[in-house]
Write a structure and sequence with these properties.
Kinesin-like protein, 26% strand, binds adenosine-5'-diphosphate, alpha/beta, ATP binding, cytoskeleton, microtubule motor activity, 14 strands, 8 helices, nucleotide-binding, binds magnesium ion, 365 residues
Amino acid sequence: ECHAGEMERRQLHNTIQELKGNIRVFCRVRPLVGGGSSDHIQLSPTDNKALVLAKSEESHVGRTGDTQKTYNFSFDRVFGPSASQQEVFEEISLLVQSALDGYNVCCFAYGQTGSGKTFTMEGGDSHQTMGVIPRTVQQVFLAAQKLTDQGWKFSFTASFVEIYNESLRDLLYTGKASKRPEHEIRKSTNNEITVTNLTYQKVTTEDQVQNLIAIANQNRSTAQTNLNDRSSRSHSVFQLDIEGENVGRDVRCKSTLCLVDLAGSERVLKSQAQGERFKEMTAINCSLSNLGLVITALANKESYIPYRNSKLTYLLQSCLGGNSKTLMFVNVAPEPDSFGESLNSLRFASKVNDCVIGTASANKK
Ligand code: ADP
Ligand code: MG
């Protein structure tokens, strides 16, 4: 039973989604900052799902002229440098909305540092540059408000966690730094994931959530000054738990919406990383590759899914696979010197794109 006014549109959306499985991959190429050119990235003017990466190779002895090696990729959608935040969000708004129908929804931004993950997820301060997280919050509250006319009542709980070096940090913590608690991920008997000592804030208005997001950003940037640019080496996970009830119709639904800004995916030369940097690199490689493994295992319907091999996948367990819809952004930097990293990111994302995970079904009782 669908409870929105725009039932048909959503049913169509769900049908399409189910036909394809419940994972989407969107690629986004950010604009060039500070001039230069990005001839190595070719976006088709007619096909908004295709992208070609081309590399000129130096001519070999005895041959004249440059040869070009090309790599073709296709995703559910490719956004070029001129795509606005609004355009990007329009493509995912139905997915986000399905969280109110009882689907778990998980959206990630994957890519090297500087490729536009935070811009995509959080965005800037102006209305125009608002990213996926604030737009999602806005939409969820608007949609929930509309559904109250049909007898629905919703309650929301927000949390915001950072995972750094395989340890969790509460981004909504406002107490004394010296009293910061430790956190453990726990799985209850009914398979619900919770984090010990974490702030789970009940919220009733959009403004309250936007305020929490501001606190989280503040918390993230404070840590950054101590440990220069830590945010690019940690994952941040915004989670909104939604419970809906329609007493008149005797229907309840429950879901979790997760929006994740992943750590930078760049490969660091082992020889260059020492001490703390080496530890960070190992933790990031482990969690990002495990994310890939989890998605692949789900796609292959394997009986064992290695969720517990990293904090990230363990935390997101209920939002990945089974009853959930997943969207991954692969963010790409257009500068020629990012060619290698772009190729790696696009290959990872292609692997994810090829996966078709089960069929999503809503959590209804
Ligand atoms: P990441 O989080 O992947 O490290 P950022 O989101 O911080 O990367 O982006 C790097 C820089 O590029 C930032 O200054 C950001 O504002 C800018 N940027 C990224 N994507 C866009 C975009 N689509 N339009 C305009 N500026 C962007
Ligand atoms: Mg960032």
